[in-house]
Prior knowledge:
It is a single chain. This protein has one helix at about 1-15, and strands at about 20-30, 35, 40-45, 55-60, 70-75, 85-90, 110-120, 125-130, 145, 150-160. By secondary structure, it is mainly beta. It has one domain: Jelly Rolls (Sandwich). The strands form 3 sheets. It has a 4-stranded antiparallel β-sheet, covered by helices on one side. A 4-stranded antiparallel β-sheet has the order 3-8-5-6, with no helix packed on it.
Amino acid sequence: xxxxxxxxxxxxxxxxxxxxxxxxxxxxxxxxxxxxxxxxxxxxxxxxxxxxxxxxxxxxxxxxxxxxxxxxxxxxxxxxxxxxxxxxxxxxxxxxxxxxxxxxxxxxxxxxxxxxxxxxxxxxxxxxxxxxxxxxxxxxxxxxxxxxxxxxxxxxxxxx
Length: 160
């Protein structure tokens, strides 16, 4: 059932975004758990070097996700060696506990801003790496296994 909902989410996302969609790819976390040591990676190339783009992280979570927010660390690696590292926090639930995002049943998908109006002016392969960076309050060590995240995706759209 989860795979059907995930496929439906991809189809709806692709259909609703129209012609400005340039790239969309998902990585499935097979057991619904994102290990602290797991890097989610994406590669893309061939985008118009004169256009501006918006990047989104798409995160699917289920009712096993125990937090109302999500911290991730991203790396955008350019073909000529430049690396941009960001630490990002996203709100995943309302203070009432109601999940944000879209979806039916227990699976929700959140489309989260990653970068806005950027150019990919170098030719070659760009790489995006995403790591989860969740911690319990008052603890230094990161959470080893983050439950409830089923898929993580990268979406690139041409800016309008």
